[in-house]
Write a structure and sequence with these properties.
The complex is a heterodimer. By secondary structure, chain A is of the alpha+beta class. Helix content of chain A is 36%, strand content 20%. Chain A has helices at 40-51, 55-71; strands at 2-6, 9-14, 19-23. The longest helix of chain B has 13 residues, at 43-55. The chains are: A alpha+beta, B alpha/beta.
Amino acid sequence: MQVRKEGWGLLFYHQTRHKMCFVRSGDWLYPEHFDGTWTEQNIIEDIAARTGTPAEIIEHSLPKLTKRLTSSRLITHEVR
Amino acid sequence: MKYADWPLAAPVNITWEITHQCNLRCVHCLSASSEASEDELAFDECKRIVDELAELKVFEINFGGGEPLLKDYFLPLLSYIHKKGIVTCISTNGTCLTDEAIALFDNNPLVNVQVSLDGATAEVNDAIRGRGTFPQIIAGIERLAGKNIPLSINSVVTSRNYFQLKELKELAVSYGANLRVSRFRPSGRARASWEALRLNSLQLKELADWLNGEPDILTGDSFFSISQDGRRQLGLDMCGACKMTCCIDPFGDVYPCAFLQAEELRGGSLREKTLKDIWDNAQTFNYFRNLEPESCRSCPRFDKCRGGCPAVAYFINQDLNSADPECLANWSGELTLPSTP
């Protein structure tokens, strides 16, 4: 899986299936969040620190996104 | 909003025609390839382009031509690209495969190979690709089959071979490959063979029905103008030129797509500008992003195809602002297409 930053969010690309996934995440997420070293809690804290968004709002939204990416087989629980 | 309306900072994939040299003279060749042209890009120039593609995070490069395997630096260029982590799709006529090439392709997660074959029999294929080519192409496919190489067999659907699609699929499956069908478009040498080889409306309708029942057949975005709703879930459903993709020719000139290589549509030269500059600022590219043929806007299917293939419209009508001449919806009420839910 590869990912790149776009103005509206992130563009995911699955190289063996040639599939893409458009994620309208604005400035919340960056490709580095998916390098395998970040936990979901780390990401929530990073977003909150950078954007000033209350953590509870991020905690509400982020699992929906990760669930979608997981169901699309773009990320797994092992490699985010 | 559909995916193609999401502005991208760079293409997702690039079609790169690396040379005009080809050992075959296919009557439908989109680039009218034959001999290498003077002043094709040098290896160092290609590497500089690759450096920028990697920086822009372009995910895929689809190589065609010409026959890319005839370019002397092609395999070293592939290796250079793979070091950057970019996926490559190599479209070859299958007759120039070397042991070195197959060794580079095998067990390489960044390689996909597509072999062109235009008939399930020598009689049909050779009428398009040249006398004696069928056994040479099959021999090439056999060299690739059984290796750990994602392999597809690509057929441009014409009036000569459309009745062999089932056999072509069986042939592909017998080699562990996928069948990919491409749309016949009137560019390059195909402009001269267009009337003889194009599908008539009934054949296009039959093709649309067949594709709808064959979800495993790959089409890329070729048939979005005739695709029925079930098939649209498989991938692209409108022209991606200048939105998702563009084409680099052997001289480094950048065009909206491989089928739209006309001087007036040239976005710029990579010898003079960066791809980023061309992608963001070329007048042609911005025109394409906003292209909505006037005659299509009242069509209930407009949101599904946005006017179809501009290349066909351009070469047939000399007008980018006209509908795809092969649009199913335009033909008549006898064609029943699924309505928008």
